[in-house]
Write a structure and sequence with these properties.
Blueprint lengths: L2 H7 L11 E5 L3 E7 L19 H19 L6 E13 L8 E12 L2 E10 L2 E14 L2
Antiparallel strand pairs: 1-2, 2-4, 3-6, 4-5, 5-6
């Protein structure tokens, strides 16, 4: 999937776009990748002498992957903006450093009207970096 297609699916843009590529997807699951660069804006202030990727940005990357999944899953929701409504059972397992690539796997587990329930797993170097459940709702753009 090209960057143009990612931009068409979700409203996120640099410097707050945390999906570089789509590896695989079907109706209920998506796998995406993101490589963090030493020059990324947040490293200068997030432990300047020991830069690590903020855990909240790892979660954000997975939620952006989930938003891409929802955009292709249900074309009728394209008139809305995906917003996080809830995060549950967040478990951070591994630090992610500049130069590393994460792989986000997000699965749609349930849908109730405009609320989507998803699970996320972010891997780095073959190990789980974070795992959590979240709910995404479609908010009207008007």
């Amino acid at each position: 999937m090209s960057l143009d297609e990612i931009h068409a699916a979700i409203p996120h843009r640099a410097p707050f776009l945390f999906v570089d590529e789509i590896v695989a997807r079907d109706e209920k699951r998506i796998v995406c990748r993101k490589t963090f660069r030493e020059s990324d804006w947040f490293y200068s202030g997030h432990y300047p002498y020991y830069p690590i990727t903020p855990g909240v940005l790892l979660c954000e990357a997975a939620m952006q992957a989930g938003a891409i999944l929802l955009a292709q899953f249900e074309p009728s929701i394209r008139g809305g903006v995906p917003v996080a409504a809830r995060m549950n059972d967040v478990r951070f397992k591994r630090v992610v450093k500049p130069g590393e690539t994460i792989e986000m796997e997000v699965e749609l587990t349930h849908r109730v009207s405009k609320a989507f329930y998803l699970t996320a797993k972010v891997m780095c170097g073959g190990k789980v970096a974070v795992r959590f459940e979240f709910t995404c709702a479609m908010a009207s753009m008007t």
